[in-house]
Write a structure and sequence with these properties.
With 187 residues, the protein is mainly α. It has two domains: 76 residues, no CATH class; 94 residues, hpI Integrase, Chain A. The chain contains seven helices and three strands; from the N terminus they run ααααααβββα. The chain has a three-stranded antiparallel β-sheet, with no helix packed on it. Strand 2 and strand 3 form a beta hairpin. The longest helix is centred in the first third of the chain and has 20 residues.
Length: 187
């Protein structure tokens, strides 16, 4: 089984196709799939192994529900690897200052503001780049993120330097776009 791992494929479906190609669906037992899980675990992180197993599980679910080729999905009886908790890391004061100084020296006039807003609010890059002036609530000193990764609207309070930067940009904002932070190509 390990010898087959030499020809690794980039996409999990390709890898599974290569490994299981001639196998009958009825040959795919939880025991066999658990062996393949263990083979996958040698060169890969648990997150990657779960991704590979999820692809095969999805295919087998279709074989059960839509095509009636199997009675049950054998992947339902295969344990997924545990994903270790990620570490939480914050920038030290020196790292933060070096980052902000580098942003100030950038040719991009909006980089410093984006980074300050990101550090102040925890918002993601694309959440900030999609912000429009109507999303700024001056009365509450907050911004509303309408398009977030999980699809839920969020309101983020702004204080201190982040709020001061936003007020400064409001004085000199461009009138040809509603974007709070116009991208370079729009300049």
């Amino acid at each position: 089984m390990c010898a087959r791992l030499n020809g690794l494929q980039r996409h999990p479906a390709q890898w599974w196709s290569k490994q299981l190609g001639p196998s009958a669906l009825t040959d795919l037992t939880p025991d066999l799939l658990a062996q393949w899980r263990d083979v996958l675990a040698k060169p890969r992180a648990p997150v990657s192994v779960r991704a590979y197993l999820s692809v095969l599980s999805h295919v087998l679910t279709i074989a059960v529900k839509e095509w009636s080729w199997l009675r049950d999905n054998p992947m339902h009886n295969v344990r997924m690897p545990r994903i270790p908790r990620g570490r939480v890391r914050y920038l030290s004061e020196g790292e933060r200052q070096r980052l902000l100084n580098a942003c100030k020296g950038s040719r991009n006039p909006w980089l410093y503001t984006v980074v300050v807003l990101a550090l102040s609010t925890g918002a993601r890059k694309m959440e900030l780049l999609r912000l429009r002036w109507p999303d700024v609530d001056v009365q509450r000193q907050a911004i509303t993120l309408h398009e977030t990764k999980n699809g839920e609207r969020r309101v983020l309070p702004l204080t201190g330097h982040a709020w001061d930067l936003l007020q400064y940009h409001a004085l000199y904002r461009r009138t040809d776009t509603e974007l709070l932070l116009p991208r370079q190509r729009e300049l």
